[in-house]
Structures are given as structure tokens and as C-alpha cells.
Amino acid sequence: MSQRAFLFDVNRCTGCQACEVACAIENQLEDVSWRQVVTLNEAHQPGVPTMHLSVACNHCADPPCMAACPALAYSKDLLTGRVDLDAELCIGCGYCSWVCPYDAPTFDNQAGVMTKCTFCGERQAAGLEPACVEQCPTGALGFGELAELPGVVEGLGMPTLDPGPSIRFVPWQGSPAGPASSCPSQTLPQAPAPAPRKISLRSEWPLVVFTLAAGALIASQAGSMFDVSGLPPLVFFTLAVLGMGASTAHLGKPQRAWRALLNVRHSWLSREIALFSAFMGAASLVQLGVSLPWLEATAAICGVAAGFAIDRVYDVVRPPESRWVHSADVLLTAALLLAMLAGVFVGVALVASLKTILYFRRKFSRRQRGLDLRWGWSIARLGIGFGLAGIVARIMPSEALIVPWFCVVAGEVIDRCEFYQELEVPTPRGQMQQELASRLAES
């Protein structure tokens, strides 16, 4: 297979954005941008050079977007190495934008699907260079066979080389501090503004509803294995409809939701959907009173497996301190609710203690990295979810346990909301800002 690639010379790029304009004109883009110019030190602070990076899809040798896409909407062209996205197959889940470290897939709000750089396939077929390369006025962007391009594999603003991006870089050849600054001598270095968030609670609230509902449903069904009274059928099915409805509505193309089952072999998102569907099928039969051998056990096993898959979906964007386990993980929430349903105080105490330890570890790590600790959220989560719940449970009669239940659920909601606020998608812009902050700290 041939693999063509971009060549980028940081010494020649002036940040004029002609490549962005050329891409937009060539592909008739209006509300999305497939190529972006990212700048290191936009404020021209002294002691740090001002450099630019023009980046689009790097058409990786091992594209994570293609592996993670649950709908099999991605493919790789054997002639050029181009990674293609078929908009007619895309369900608009946005998962490819989570796993791509180069911020290439972009959601088109009007079309409801993901879009990305096409490598100008039609131009290549006609023997032409991509439009962004052809229109670069300084020659900062080049193009050719990957094996024949000069330059190095690492470049400023590139978070990871694991996927094998098809791009090479001509390294910066100027002074490490850049040209002499015209800023007044009293100007002090300032920390860069934070990069725009790709994942936020505002955009992901339907997933908060789905994951919390999933935890409650899994706990309820698992309880039946131990003769524990779970949720009443009406409440069970109401939660199921709310959770699955919110998850489906989160898609840009909800009518294509069935395609999410097509990539079980590689995508955790596909596995989540497949396992949760199997769980709901078996659990629904149990709720309807169907008596079959091993049905309850099958439902419980599928539920635990679905919870595990749901948690694994977020591995690619979890912050470092929560890479393996998070206090708001679906399985931990299900374990806490199961212990409460069973009335096993020791189990409740153990799970609550583990969640508290994980919560404090997360906050300590964020403090070390200089990130916002969100004290208001923390006080509410610990005070209501654990402190108030425990106190009320001790002083109230057993017939009035609805209040501590409410407190625990409120705490889990807060923790899950924080979870989405802390997810981190690596991007060239974010990498640039980390680099600038590091250089300013050294200056």
C-alpha cells in the first residue's frame, strides 16, 4: 500500500491561514473547518518564539478513528493511504473525535454527522496536490510519498505518534527564545488561556442520564440473584426508557442507531450497545415474570459486562489520575446501589469508602496539576452523597429511608457530572498551550 503524507516546515509558516481558506473553498465548507492553524505564543510573550502549526487529518497508518467507530463509517484507501469517512454510514456519535489525538473529525451540526479532511482524493486522482498545499504562499506545506519525505516524525503540538500519522516536520531552526521581543521590560509572562473543551457537561448531559440509569438497572437486576427486592417493574422500565432514549437522542443521526452494533470486534462503544441491549432483553423478560433456566443469571452477567464496557468507552479521554478507575464509574455506582438494596451496611460502607478514596485521590492529582478543584461540587458531593446520607440513615426509622436514598443518588449525580467535566481530549491546541505554559514557567 502506498502512503502519501504532508510535510510541514514550521520555519516557513506565518500563520496566514491561507490553507484553511483553500480547504474551505475546495470542499465548500461553511460551518466546519477541516484544517486549522494553531499558534504557539499568540500574545508574543518575551522569551518564547511565536510558531504556527497547520494541521488536518493525518491519515494515520493505524487510524484510531477507524478502530473506534461503532458504525464502520471509516475506511482506508489502499492506493494513497487516505482515511475516508462515509457520511451516509455515520451515526453522529462523535466518538471518533474523542479518540483522534489530532482533532481531525468535526461534527457538522446541520448534517448531524462527523466530517473530516478527504486528502483531496479527487485532486490526487487528477495528479494534483491537495488544495491546502497548493495554496500555501510560503511553501510551509508540502506533499509526497511518506517514505521519500525529509524531516522528522515529531512536531510541536502533536500529542502522540502511536497511530502513525502521515506527516513529517522540518524542525524549528531559529533561536529557542525566538526573535528579540518588542514588549516592555516590565511585561510579565502570563499563563495561556485554557483550550476550548471538546467534552463538557452541557454537551454530554444525555450520557449522564444514560450511565446513571444503567447503574441503577444493573444493581436492581443483580439483586435478583441474591433474592433482593429490586426496582418495581414500572420504575425499572421508566428508567430504561429514559436512559436509552437519552443515549439515542445524543446521536446526530438517531435513525441510524442500529449501526452502533456493527463494530463489536474493535469498538468499546459497539460492545457497550451490544451488551446493554442483551442485558435489557434478558432483564425485561425477568421483569415480565418469564421463568426460564438461568435467565436471571444471564441478565445479571450481561448487566455487569455492559457496565464494564460503558466504563471502558471513556478510557481514551479519562484524566491521568482516573485512567483505570473513577469514583463515578458505572460499576461502582451499581455496587453501591446493590448494597443499599440488600441492606448490607458493611457493603455500603466498603463501596462508599472506596469511592471516597478515589474521589480524594482525583482531587489531589488535579491540585498537583494546578487545575480547578471545584470546591462547591466537592462539598456537595461528599456532604450530601456520603455525610448527610449516613447521618440521616442512622437517625431515621427504617421505614423512612427514602431521604438517605435521595442523598446517595444526588451524590452520584454530582460525581457523574464532574466526571464529564474532567474528561480530556488531547488536541494540538491543548498540546501547544501545555508547551507554552512549560516554557513560561522556565523563563
Determine the mean pLDDT.
89
CA-CA gap between termini: 46 Å
Q: Strands across the major sheet, in which order?
A: 8-1-9
- The overall strand count is 9
The shape is globular
Number of helices: 14
Amount of beta strand: 5-15%
Range of helix content: 40-55%
The topology string of helices and strands comes to: EHEEHEEHEEHHEEHHHHHHHHH
Structural class: mainly alpha
Largest sheet: 3 strands, mixed
Low-confidence stretches: 179-189
Radius of gyration: 25 Å
Q: Could you explain how this protein is built, in words?
A:
The structure is a single chain. By secondary structure, this protein is mainly α. Helices cover 46% and strands 8% of the residues. It contains 14 helices and 9 strands. A 3-stranded mixed sheet has the order 8-1-9. The chain has a two-stranded antiparallel sheet with strand order 2-3. A two-stranded antiparallel sheet has the order 4-5. A hairpin with a 6-residue loop joins strand 4 and strand 5. The longest helix is centred in the last third of the chain and has 24 residues. The chain is globular and about 75 Å long.
Short description:
The protein has helices at residues 18-27, 64-68, 95-99, 121-125, 131-134, 201-223, 233-249, 268-287, 295-313, 330-342, 345-368, 375-395, 402-422, 428-442, and strands at residues 4-9, 36-40, 51-55, 74-76, 83-85, 106-108, 113-115, 141-145, 167-170. It has 443 residues and is mainly alpha-helical.
